[in-house]
Amino acid sequence: MNLLLIDQNDFTAPGKILISGRRFLQLRDVIKPQIGETIRTGIKNGNTGKAAVLEFHDDHVVMETVLDTPPPAPSPVTLVCAMQRPLTFKKILHGALTMGVKKIHFIHAAKVEKSYWQSAVLRDAELDLEIRLALEQCGDTVYPELEFHTRFKPFAEDILPQLVETSALALFGHPRATTPVPVPPESGSIILAAGPEGGFNEFENTVLEEAGLLPVTLGARVLRSEYAVTALLAKLS
Amino acid sequence: MNLLLIDQNDFTAPGKILISGRRFLQLRDVIKPQIGETIRTGIKNGNTGKAAVLEFHDDHVVMETVLDTPPPAPSPVTLVCAMQRPLTFKKILHGALTMGVKKIHFIHAAKVEKSYWQSAVLRDAELDLEIRLALEQCGDTVYPELEFHTRFKPFAEDILPQLVETSALALFGHPRATTPVPVPPESGSIILAAGPEGGFNEFENTVLEEAGLLPVTLGARVLRSEYAVTALLAKLS
Q1: Nearest CB to A230 within list B138, B222, B231
Q2: How wide is the angle at C-alpha B177 spanned by C-alphas B176 and B179, nearest 5°?
Q3: What does the alpha-carbon distance between residue B175 and residue B171 come to, in Å, rounded to a whole number?
Q4: Do A137 and B223 touch (CB under 8 A)?
């Protein structure tokens, strides 16, 4: 935890917060701040700053906060990612969020197993925890928007072209593409689409190209999805 | 498995191989090639090519190989990475190897727990399996050289300066650096050093700078080690 992410309802008085539960345990067992010591904090969707420990109790800590610094700038990338097996989904989500992505569309594709859509990681409480852990890791406060599209065609044919139209660059990873990832534009949003393990199929590749996405490659090597997405985001940052 | 990695002792006759054990199970249960079908293959430290299924038996498969294509070019990066907890070590190793890194020095640092050096993942058989899985994933055949340095100072003061001297670029990730990762040189080797969770300490940062490494940043966000190394390697590829 590199930032204590707080909510409006953590406040007991102006500038004064009470932290219990998971975050308290993290503070007590890992961060171990002394009374008077300050740690980095930030309020959901708002400023970051510092929190000083006032009182340490058995099951909660009382802190004083000053929140005067905007969170880091968001990534210009909107990620479109084929749904993945639960563990890979969590890794991709964590990587993208810690790299500042604020908008992700998870989509179906032919090589996505239907069971992935029933996974417990997609429940609101699980997703919320994954988002919080990522924001706490990277020192951000701004919640992402996640959308889930359980059918490929309606998303790729109806929604994607509109996204592409308003973006400065639109790409998708394609194993047989020869174009490397271009230098990102100085401004404007970027659409990046990443396939499932095994890649998009030929039909899907065609639909993505027709929607205006440029097929690009990371090179001759085939990376696992979570490494490929991280590498593509790094090249576009 | 995007490439069946074979050894000299898999050959029963010129061009003919017999595959059993883990790789056989992977073929039978995941890849499921038919008789006559070909899959990508490559021989350890040698060419890649194709293998056609001749016979499928209960516990082995017999295949015919043609190995006529060199493996993908290696990454110019020599990675110097602080030792990590076992799971993170495996993730960093996998990421670096699948991105083509062929030389990695794992080193001690103040924030590295001594117990990490006793981990089972460092046993030869475990390391060999991790290397094979990474080469099979990315379609490469060339084994990396891994070195382990259980003391920071002798490595950083005696070995690192020599590595830096023969490289075209030498960098290390530093949380408070303001220089972004530079565009990699057209040719020549690159030294990239990455710290433990929590970063190198002040003394270590100074030693690395004095050894000739440039402190660089990936931006305001703090990434988990495996994502940071992947992102740095992507920016240098």
Answers
A1: B231
A2: 155
A3: 13
A4: yes
Looking at the partner chain, which of A139, A218, A224 has a beta carbon nearest the beta carbon of B222?
A139
Mutate one of B3, B94, B227, B232 to test the A interface: name it (highest A CB count within 10 A). Answer: B227
- Residue B220 has its nearest CB partner, among A72, A218, A231, at A72
- Looking at CA atoms only, how far is residue B158 from chain A in angstroms? 32
Task: Name the interface residues of B facing A (CB cutoff 8 Å).
Answer: 2, 72-73, 94-95, 98-100, 137-140, 218-224, 227, 230-235, 237
Return the SS3 of B226: helix
Please give the ipTM for the structure prediction: 0.95
How far apart are the C-alpha atoms of B27 and A21, rounded to whole Å?
47
Angle of CA points B68, A227, B233, to nearest 5°: 80
According to DSSP, the β-strands at A16-20 and A38-43 are unpaired
| Type of residue numbered A75 | S
Alpha carbon distance B113, B86 (integer Å): 11
Contacts of B140 in chain A (CB under 8 A): 221
Got the DSSP string for A97-123?
HHTT--EEEEE--TTS-GGGGG-GGGS
What is the DSSP secondary structure assignment for residue B180, as one 8-state letter? B
Decide if A231 and B232 are in contact by the 8 Å CB cutoff.
no
A139–B220 C-beta distance less than 8 A: yes
How much of chain B is helix, strand and coil, in % rounded to 5?
35, 30, 35
CA distance B55 to B28: 12
Rounded to the nearest angstrom, the gap between the alpha carbon of residue B27 and the centroid of all alpha carbons in its chain is 24
Residues in chain A within 8 Å Cβ distance of B227: 94-95, 98-99, 230
How far, rounded to the nearest angstrom, does the alpha carbon of residue A210 sit from its chain's CA centroid?
Answer: 27
Kindly report the three-state secondary structure assignment for every residue of A185-219. Answer: CCCCCEEEEECCCCCCCHHHHHHHHHCCCEEEECC
Per-residue pLDDT of chain B (237 residues; tens, 9 = 90+): 999 999 999 999 999 999 999 999 999 999 999 999 999 999 999 999 999 999 999 999 999 999 999 999 999 999 999 999 999 999 999 999 999 999 999 999 999 999 999 999 999 999 999 999 999 999 999 999 999 999 999 999 999 999 999 999 999 998 789 999 999 999 999 999 999 988 999 999 999 999 999 999 999 999 999 999 999 999 999
CA distance B154 to chain A (A): 30
Two tokens at B4?
Answer: 């069946």
Q: What is the residue-wise DSSP string for B83-137? A: ---HHHHHHHHHHHHHTT--EEEEE--TTS-GGGGG-GGGSHHHHHHHHHHHHHH
